[in-house]
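Second attempt. The first submission of Leucine-binding protein domain-containing protein had a stray character pasted in from the spreadsheet, which I only caught after the job came back as garbage. Lesson logged: always re-copy from the clean sequence file. Corrected sequence (411 aa) follows.
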Amino acid sequence: MIKRKQFIPLLLSGITGAFVLACSPSQPSGNNTASNSNSTTNTVENSKGIPIGVVLAQTSNAALLGQEQVIGAKMAEQYFNQQGGINGTPIKLALQDGGGDEQGAINAFNTLITQQKVVGILGPSLSQQAFAADPIAERAKVPVLGPSNTAKGVPQIGDYIARVSAPVAVVAPNAVKAALKINPDIKKVAVFYAQNDAFSKSETETFQQTVKDLNLDLVTVQKFQTTDTDFQNQATAAINLNPDLIIISGLAADGGNLIKQLRQLGYQGLIIGGNGLNTSNIFSVCQKECDGVIIAQAYSPEIDNPINKTFRETYAAQNKKEPPQFTAQAFAGVQVFVDALKAVDQKNKLDSLSLEQLREQLNQAILSGKYETVLGNISFTPEGEVVQEKFYVAQIKMDETGKNGKFTYLK
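This time the job returned cleanly.
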């Protein structure tokens, strides 16, 4: 049972610093070491805590989602250590900024595996990065949990690769079905996607197939780059075809600007944003034009279990808003590592295992475990795909100032 009265006041004192660090691009995350980087032994250096690597986008165009993930990971570190860590031994997150490109993730993975000798890695933020960096962990036999890698094919990278983020093929169609409930007269659909991002390319395939499966008319497919800021040509081309619904697969910065420009050019129909837009940080990008955007969710603050109630209350008390999906998924990822490490320790004390043995047994424990998390009950298939019970859809509601908003969950 979770001791909520003891947990909340103690955790809140630690979250303020975590939030500031997570939201400050000037902080050098790579200096947060969790183990003796000069160790020459092949055992876990856990005198300061069992090192779990975390590779998230704290800079670049992916930072709007990565900063939310850092908050979730740090909340989990604080919480599970207060609960006793791994049967009395604390965990220690080794944070690395993966940036928004493949090389950033590759560098971070190499540092964590060879220098900081982590037992496993939570990350990276983007699927595009996962396809580049995960094979490094696979070759080193280091367990990886993707907190937001939803593109097709991620768990198939290798035996040591899993994810707590449900695949886009499962989540995305719910948003289109929700849009049809709001407006049953939808016929014509325009699709936009970031062609330089593996996740967006995977997600748009699902969206386009869903449109066809529902016998809707896909009138145009417009491409852009995640680094673009001017979408006038693509937006005008789509609006001229009079779509009833527009679907966008991209990241928060580019996607938010695209939404803003669509509205400014006169588009008044429904808009669906993909998972890359699923962050409250988008509110400052598209502001009042964010209002009404529909986004499918793998998390709801109203999930009714003890750990989510505590997580929700703690996050809301500090941030004056409900916790977002990316924060919840990062929290859940750390929890899976913690629960699986406990299972390993109960069979063989962690300090009796070599690092190689621990990584191998940890991977086996992750895949065979069942977990009650802030996402609800989850487990994994043998190849590392998450099995999650429920999914949700939310619609953005902005206030009269156009600066503050929230995700309103649809029934």
